[in-house]
Design a protein that fits this description.
alpha/beta; 8 strands; single chain; 6 helices; globular
């Protein structure tokens, strides 16, 4: 029921602007293959986020606001059948993905943010059918672009496309035989970014 889902997303802290994409979210979830599908054909759904708010330092932990946002992410994804959670090896990305991974009984799989084969692995279907990828202000837009899509974020001359806040939640849907698409959603309170 779409109305019930809208209420659940609002309670979970998903931004009201994201409600416009609920039909796409529902369609993406409904089009996933069932567990008995021998070939695993169907949709790949990637939820990609930047790590939550971080403290200062070289490999910082999350701030209290970041911990709250990570919990909000887990609530937003509570009805999503995640089968993998990917994170870079930093404390802030792993801590952002941990509540969602724990809620689903999943281990976090590390990936390298640059020169990595994660997009190829995911596109092959061997990296999971419905996944969460936690990255950084520059790596999340790069993942969107790896699927031939535009993230719709400002472009920095040195770093390329950069996320400006912590609230973006990208849903990339790649269905066999169809052009992939991306929905840019938000969750939790509006924020202002500070560094990568």
């Amino acid at each position: 029921n779409v109305m019930q889902t809208r209420r659940e997303l609002l309670r979970a802290g998903l931004g009201a602007g994201a409600l416009l994409s609920l039909p796409a979210l529902a369609a993406a979830q409904d089009s996933r293959p069932v567990a008995g599908d021998a070939q695993g054909a169907g949709s790949l759904v990637i939820y990609a986020v930047r790590h939550a708010e971080k403290a200062g330092g070289r490999d910082p932990d999350l701030t209290p606001e970041g911990t709250t946002r990570a919990a909000a992410l887990a609530r937003v994804l509570q009805h999503v059948d995640l089968d993998h959670v990917y994170s870079t090896e930093t404390k802030r990305t792993r801590a952002t993905g941990a509540p969602a991974a724990e809620a689903k009984g999943l281990e976090i799989t590390s990936y390298k943010p640059f020169g990595n084969d994660l997009p190829k692995l995911l596109a092959s279907g061997e990296g999971g059918q419905t996944v969460l990828v936690v990255g950084h202000s520059n790596t999340v837009p790069a993942l969107v672009k790896a699927f031939g899509l535009e993230p719709g974020v400002p472009v920095d001359p040195k770093h390329g496309p950069l996320l400006q806040g912590y609230e973006d939640l990208f849903m990339i849907v790649a269905t066999k035989g169809a052009k992939p698409f991306v929905q840019r959603l938000t969750y939790g309170p509006k924020s202002e970014a500070k560094g990568h």
